[in-house]
């Protein structure tokens, strides 16, 4: 089998060499013939162009001699001519110069004065002609040749060749012109045999066509060949496209002495190479016939050899090639000859592994040297290949990272399989590879989004739980603070009982503040939203913070947001900034720097942050940094959880950052945290900017003085509805102490039945929202449907946007927060009763 393979390779190699020799010989002969024909054409065109240029130069020199002589004669003796003497003098100078059709004298004002012969037309004003203005404006113009034009002197196409006439004192005295008709030039060149497919062009120095032969020249059609100027400077025959017929031409361009003229000979390239085309057809047919003969001979020999090799080996090799081709389809593939340690890789495989096409990859050592595997993946990849070569695995399938020239890492998924001999020894390893970086990136993004989703769901669940707990706790606090306030009013000032009750009320106030913080975290609170100027607000925080800092701490602020406004509650935003600054101070101890950066940033695309996403738009970004030790990873994941704190027992509630998170998320913002790696900790708060609105300077301050005493009633009957019996009793006690007649009900159904029995009995209604069976807002809607002018106040420990909307829809006059204070309750009832309309 090995001898048959060697014989087959020799036959194929001999046939390939013979075919290559035939093709190379035919190609060399064709190239040499092409060079010879092109050289002959170049020589012919160049010589012809030079000869015709010399002829044209002599013709123009004769015209120039006449012009020089005439200008000198007329300019020197201009005032001594008698009547009728100039024209005969002009006529005598054109004798023997057939190319000059008419010789004309033009005065300094552009008016023709004398002609060498009568053309039948009147003398014309040529002051607008370019040749006149050029000669008038410069003494150095010399010989001027105009563009082809229909001359006013003869009324036929031609060139106007002119020279300046200077008077005795050197001043401009006029122009002498000679008309060279295009008909004369065409006749001069028509006698020349240019050959088939050839043509002659006479142009000005800028490529403007003067004469084309064969074919008449129409001066009205302004044809231009600007490339002739470059060809003339090169002095060689070049190939260009004729703009008149769009066909490739061989062009030889020669300047006509120092005159502003170019003479070019063009020959159709196809016509010039006609002998070469004919010879190449003949040579090609001979070469193809010879190649077919060689191929048929090789095929016959190989078929004879293949008859001796049919059997199991041929079938197995065919199956191997088919299997390998299917595995490597549309992927980068490689082959490693294990016995000879030679490697073949496809271009796709090189591109996937970041190896340039010029880098040799002939052996396995070359591959290891030029393919940069990730240090974490190299041992795993080597172990997988070694296991497969040793026969311990059926195939190789692994994923690894490779570094490209730009420094980025790409994920590669590779699979391969060995071809083995009868003894199981690995002979060749075939492999296929594909880029799975996008899948890996998508998996990483999915994992990150799932982690963020879990964190968001956890915070939402904690917020919901906290809101529910706070609502129930509000009911308990309502009774404690309400009865405590009544007891406080009745206790004698300075007594031990009064001191004990005062301590109870202080603890209750702290508990109420804690509930409010829980509600802020759960976003169950409701606040009026107005435009707030963040720069003014942060400046106010700094003014409050700096005096309280220890001597070793300082604030470094750079506020550049200008008038940018954020829609929110000023007090809540003040709380956000103050909480972040307080945490930064507490993270540093006695020494450090609190840095505040406030900027307006425009985002062009969606961006994912540590807590929340921000869409494209304008934002105010507040960065609060500290020079402390940084945040550990385990703390970073839980720092915004409610009741999570790293402080000692009694030093913090763990709600500060939770409230920050709730407020920022509620107004559509997001939070990012950068920490670790030796860098300062920076908490970034992104808040959406309100466009085109005036902003408040900071949080609204509570008035320093209050009106002493509470508004009192005049025996008005107030319906009270609450399912919490202590709160119901408290409300009845409070209203009775304020001069109202309270009527309490434990359910909305009983209250509705009592109202339907006597709708005019009640002057106002005070109802809780969270009632079994029917919520307070629905009860208010039913009561006002029967008596529209009835004032209703709604009470809840969980006031949010949805509740506010339901209350407005039901016609509720006021919404109060639990727990209720006596002053707040008295003012609310007085206000809604004063605003009621008569039924």
The largest sheet is: 6 strands, antiparallel
Number of strands: 30
Beta-strand fraction estimate: 15-25%
Question: What integer is the average pLDDT?
Answer: 80
Looking at the structure, what is the overall shape? elongated
**Kindly, what is the distance between the CA atoms of the first and last residues, rounded to a whole number of angstroms?**
116 Å
Count of helix runs = 22
Question: What is the assembly state of the chains in this entry?
Answer: single chain
Radius of gyration, whole Å: 52 Å
Helix content: 40-55%
Structural class call reads: alpha+beta
- List segments where confidence is low: pLDDT < 50 over at least 5 consecutive residues: 693-708
Provide structural commentary.
The protein has 839 residues and is α+β, with helices and mostly antiparallel strands. Helix content is 44%, strand content 23%. Strands 1, 2, 3, 4, 5 and 6 form a six-stranded antiparallel β-sheet that branches. It has a five-stranded antiparallel β-sheet with strand order 8-7-11-10-9. α12 (437-490) packs antiparallel against α13 and α15 packs antiparallel against α17 (656-666). The longest helix has 75 residues, at 2-76. It is elongated and about 145 Å long. It starts with a helix and ends in a 5-residue tail after the last helix. Residues 693-708 have low confidence and may be disordered.
């Amino acid at each position: 089998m090995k001898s048959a393979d060697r014989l087959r390779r020799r036959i194929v190699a001999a046939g390939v060499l013979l075919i290559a020799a035939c093709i190379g010989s035919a190609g060399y002969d064709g190239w040499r013939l092409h060079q010879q024909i092109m050289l002959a054409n170049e020589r012919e065109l160049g010589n012809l162009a030079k000869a015709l240029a010399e002829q044209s130069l002599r013709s123009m020199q004769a015209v120039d001699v006449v012009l020089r002589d005439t200008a000198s004669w007329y300019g020197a003796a201009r005032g001594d001519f008698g009547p009728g003497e100039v024209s005969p003098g002009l006529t005598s100078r054109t004798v023997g110069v057939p190319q000059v059709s008419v010789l004309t004298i033009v005065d300094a004002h552009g008016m023709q004065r004398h002609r060498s012969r009568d053309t039948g037309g009147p003398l014309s004003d040529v002051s607008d002609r370019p040749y006149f203005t050029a000669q008038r404006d410069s003494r150095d113009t010399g010989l001027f040749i105009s563009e082809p034009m229909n001359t006013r002197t003869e009324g036929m196409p031609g060139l106007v060749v002119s020279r300046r006439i200077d008077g005795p004192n050197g001043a401009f005295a006029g122009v002498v012109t000679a008309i060279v008709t295009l008909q004369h030039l065409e006749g001069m060149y028509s006698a020349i045999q240019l050959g088939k497919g050839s043509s002659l062009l006479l142009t000005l120095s800028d490529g403007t066509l003067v004469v084309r032969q064969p074919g008449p020249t129409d001066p009205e059609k302004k044809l231009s060949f600007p490339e002739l100027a470059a060809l003339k400077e090169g002095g060689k025959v070049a190939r260009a496209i004729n703009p008149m017929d769009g066909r490739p031409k061989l062009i030889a361009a020669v300047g006509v002495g120092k005159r502003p003229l170019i003479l070019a000979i063009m020959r159709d390239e196809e016509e010039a190479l006609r002998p070469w085309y004919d010879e190449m057809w003949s040579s090609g047919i001979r070469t193809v016939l010879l190649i077919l003969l060689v191929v048929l001979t090789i095929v016959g020999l190989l078929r004879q050899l293949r008859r001796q090799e049919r059997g199991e080996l041929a079938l197995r090799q065919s199956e191997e090639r088919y299997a390998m081709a299917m595995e490597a389809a549309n992927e980068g593939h490689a082959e490693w000859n294990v016995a000879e340690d030679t490697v073949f890789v496809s271009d796709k495989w090189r591109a996937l592994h970041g190896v340039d096409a010029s880098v040799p990859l002939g052996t396995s050592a070359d591959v290891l040297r030029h393919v940069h595997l990730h240090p974490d993946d190299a041992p795993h990849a080597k172990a997988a290949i070694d296991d497969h070569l040793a026969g311990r695995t059926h195939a190789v399938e692994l994923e690894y990272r490779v570094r490209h020239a730009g420094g980025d890492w790409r994920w590669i998924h590779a699979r391969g399989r060995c071809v083995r001999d009868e003894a199981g020894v690995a002979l060749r390893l075939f492999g296929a590879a594909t880029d799975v970086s996008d899948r890996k990136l998508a998996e990483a993004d999915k994992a990150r989004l799932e982690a963020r989703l879990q964190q968001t769901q956890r915070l939402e669940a904690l917020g919901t739980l906290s809101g529910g707990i706070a609502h129930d706790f509000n009911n308990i606090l309502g009774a404690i603070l309400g009865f405590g306030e009544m007891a406080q009013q009745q206790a004698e000032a300075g007594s031990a009982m009064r001191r004990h009750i005062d301590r109870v009320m202080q603890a209750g106030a702290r508990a109420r503040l804690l509930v409010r913080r829980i509600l802020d975290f759960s976003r169950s609170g409701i606040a009026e939203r107005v435009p707030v100027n963040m720069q003014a607000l942060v400046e106010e925080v700094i003014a409050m913070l700096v005096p309280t800092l220890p001597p070793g701490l300082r604030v470094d602020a750079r506020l550049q947001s200008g008038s940018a406004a954020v829609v929110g509650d000023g007090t809540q935003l003040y709380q956000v900034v103050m909480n972040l600054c307080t945490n930064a101070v507490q993270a540093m101890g006695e020494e450090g720097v609190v840095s505040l950066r406030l900027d307006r940033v425009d985002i062009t695309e969606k961006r994912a942050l540590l807590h929340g996403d921000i869409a494209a738009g304008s934002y105010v970004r507040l960065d609060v940094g500290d020079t402390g030790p940084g945040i550990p990873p385990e703390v970073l994941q839980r720092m915004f959880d409610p009741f999570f704190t790293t402080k000692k027992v009694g030093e913090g509630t763990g709600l500060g950052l939770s409230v920050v998170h709730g407020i920022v998320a509620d107004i559509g913002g997001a939070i990012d945290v950068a920490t670790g790696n030796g860098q300062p900790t920076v908490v970034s708060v992104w808040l959406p900017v309100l466009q085109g609105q005036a902003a408040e300077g900071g949080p609204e301050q509570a008035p320093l003085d209050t009106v002493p005493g509470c508004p009192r009633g005049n025996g008005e009957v107030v319906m009270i509805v609450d399912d919490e019996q202590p709160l119901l009793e408290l409300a009845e006690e409070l209203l009775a102490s304020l001069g109202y007649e309270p009527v309490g009900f434990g359910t909305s159904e009983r209250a509705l039945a009592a109202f339907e029995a006597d709708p005019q009995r009640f002057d106002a209604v005070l109802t809780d929202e969270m009632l079994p069976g029917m919520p307070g807002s629905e009860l208010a809607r039913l009561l006002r449907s029967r008596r529209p002018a009835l004032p209703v106040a709604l009470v809840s420990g969980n006031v949010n946007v949805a509740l506010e909307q339901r209350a407005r829809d039901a016609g509720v006059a006021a919404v109060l927060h639990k727990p209720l204070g006596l002053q707040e309750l008295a003012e609310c009832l007085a206000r809604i009763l004063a605003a009621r309309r008569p039924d």
